[in-house]
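Batch manifest line 318
LIGAND: aspartic acid
JOB: complex structure
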Amino acid sequence: MPFTLVIHGGAGNITPAIMDSELERQYTQGLKDALDKGYDVLKGSGTALDAVVAAISVLEDNPLFNAGRGSVFTKKGINEMDAAIMDGSNLAAGAVAGVRHIKNPIALAREIMEHSGHVFLSGSGAAEFALNRGMEMTPDEYFFNQSRYDQWVEIRDTNFTQLDHKGDNLKGAVLPNPGHKFGTVGAVACDMMGNIAGGTSTGGMTNKRFGRIGDSPVIGSGTYANNATCAISCTGHGEYFLRAVVAHDISCLMEYRGLSLSDACNVVIKDKLVKMGGEGGLIAVDANNNFDFCFNSAGMYRGMRNSEGKELVAFYGA
Ligand code: ASP
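JOB STATUS: finished
ARTIFACT:
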């Protein structure tokens, strides 16, 4: 039976002009590591849900990406993370917002889905639940990264927030502290049983206000999955994705208007969102293993791997 995994590591101003070959290599490797992990789950007859958590956890552990370990700093100089997951086979969902010290927020989102009796927990309530469930916690130092910190110091005394996608020039940056990093992360998958799932994890926007929540953990905006239509994970300027209810809008276009997966993605990302002034993109899959990458920004870190032997990692626009 066929299966498909699609991932992203953030969309934005990603062009060859801001990269060099070493950075390209590192991003390629980071995406491949996540693809391999999720692919192995699917190949071993694992569920789409398991594959999504596996792939996202790898990206959360990689400081290149703005999620988990690599999360950006808020206006208060701390890291507050958001994540969500949804199971398209039964419309179960779990989400978490504004958490600190959680090593893998996507795992906490799944834990909330399966064990809290709720869909969405935030802040200290989410932290208490995580402790009770024995989730892995990490100290502030784990999330500290000089380049993220410098990025925040540049704008902390202003009222500006900064999308992590607004890369200036990454060239010559030496990892693990590259000058600027991109990357909310997400994964969508279709498993051998024909079930689909989607998940997203992020540190949000640099200098975001205390308590600000973006689209990523909001079911229907940044994350959605329904076997009848599609699984979606978004990345971009969350305020626009929230107002456009992007992920569920794509599902609705498929369900009510009969649009194909890629037509529905195009309508929302390249038409509706552009008219609103929203920048970003998404990954999508349906229960027939059709998949799509769609973005209106210069680029999007992205990759896919399926049972047909197709594998792809790309950054830039077509
Ligand atoms: N959508 C995320 C947010 O607004 C940011 C991103 O995709 O990088 O929090």
